[in-house]
Amino acid sequence: MQNKTFATYTLGCKVNQYETNAVEEVFIEDGFTLTDFDEKADVYIINTCTVTAMSDKKSRQIIRRAKKQNKNSLVVVIGCYSQISPDEVAKIEDVNLVMGTSNKKGILQEVKKLKLTDKVIKVNSLKDENEFENLDTKAHSKNQRAFLKIQDGCDRYCSYCIIPYTRGKVRSRRKEDILKEIEELSKNDYKEVVLTGIHVASYGKDFRLKSLKEQENVNDINENYLLDVIESIAQNDGIKRIRIGSLEPVIITDNFLEKLTKIEKFCPHFHLSLQSGCDETLSRMNRRYTTEEYEESVNKIRKYFDNPAITTDVIVGFPGETEEEFNKTFDYLKKIKLYQMHIFPFSRRSGTKAYDMPNQIPEQIKHTRVEILKKLDEQNRDSFENNMIGKIEQVLFEQRAGEYFEGHTKNYVKLYMKTEQDLSGILQNVLIYEKIDDRLICKK
Hints:
The chain folds into three domains: 5-124, Methylthiotransferase, N-terminal domain (Rossmann fold), CATH 3.40.50.12160; 127-267, Transcription Regulator spoIIAA; 392-443, CATH 2.40.50.140. The chain has 14 helices and 18 strands. The protein has helices at 14-29, 53-69, 80-84, 86-90, 107-113, 163-167, 175-187, 205-212, 224-233, 254-261, 279-285, 291-304, 323-336, 363-386; strands spanning 5-10, 33-34, 43-48, 74-79, 97-99, 120-122, 145-152, 171-172, 192-197, 241-244, 269-271, 309-316, 340-345, 392-401, 404-409, 414-418, 427-436, 439-443. The strands form four sheets. The protein has a six-stranded parallel sheet, sandwiched between helices. It has a five-stranded mixed β-barrel with strand order 14-15-16-18-17. The chain has a four-stranded mixed sheet with strand order 8-7-9-10. Helix 2 links the parallel strand 3 and strand 4 (74-79). Helix 13 (323-336) packs parallel to helix 14 (363-386).
């Protein structure tokens, strides 16, 4: 193939970004030059998201944008949207190749076969995907933090979520492969790693199923597999910090937390998915825990760690959410007082149980409820950050922000230091001494 330039665009989660980086590396190793998506390229690769109907719409917009840069380019669509709706994606004018969420290493070879007039669908069924696709990527984020995919797939089947159908069953990455990539990250001077996946709490479940050979009878999650990975990564001298992506209450055990406290490099920032503070709503969502169990997890984290940052996701306006149910969520969130909440209005996604549920909530009511929770979130965040003023914290500096250099504490609070120095990659203890315009300011 004579065409040697390509561009990528990623929608959605950190897993998608990791996988895009892996695809980029395959193309670069073959002699392609990576260019910006808004510039002329010979191949455009769009890694799509389908978590909401709006995600599908955004994916289509980006797909259509690609060909405008170069009418003689090849347009390749991969990711969750193309996995669940390959025919719909293929109908979009100018799309040449549709692939899904598997076989990332095979994209290059498929591209080499393409002609400008081709329209090819190569989406594999996920029913037969039993092994983690090891991508061995060295291309990560451009700051000091690398996202490392250790798991794929989900078997939780929340009633609003399409992802189990786009990602397949739980597949965990072998520890030796994880550590191999950790070694590469360390050599490339990354100081911090974030372990990510589609459902990180399920890491190792498939290993356990294979060892027990009782797949239909084993539905619980065992935290020891994830602990083993974290403890092993901590042995690498170059990696100074280890974070975990989104978790759920099922993995927050005394054993899990006690062992994490003994890993000095572990960062006490827990993103603990909630979705609703009302048990009736949680039941309709098929979330598999109660508000009491969630609160117990929060209290356990606070028992084992000093000033941990606990963040969460909340969906408002879920079908059937009455004013009383929403008020329960508000009161609950006010009581447990988390550091930060990512608040979303419920978005109907075809193919999920929630799509056809009765008592869908009007958009205006959803919007009003989102705004109410956003105000509560601002209060909680201000309270948490104000309590940090006067404390000495370790910060990993990442990049310049005007006259300041910014970085994050171990519990993932962003700090700013006024300096002319380039502090990229520097780990330093600092004093947090004031807050200016929602920015926590620190000094040596």
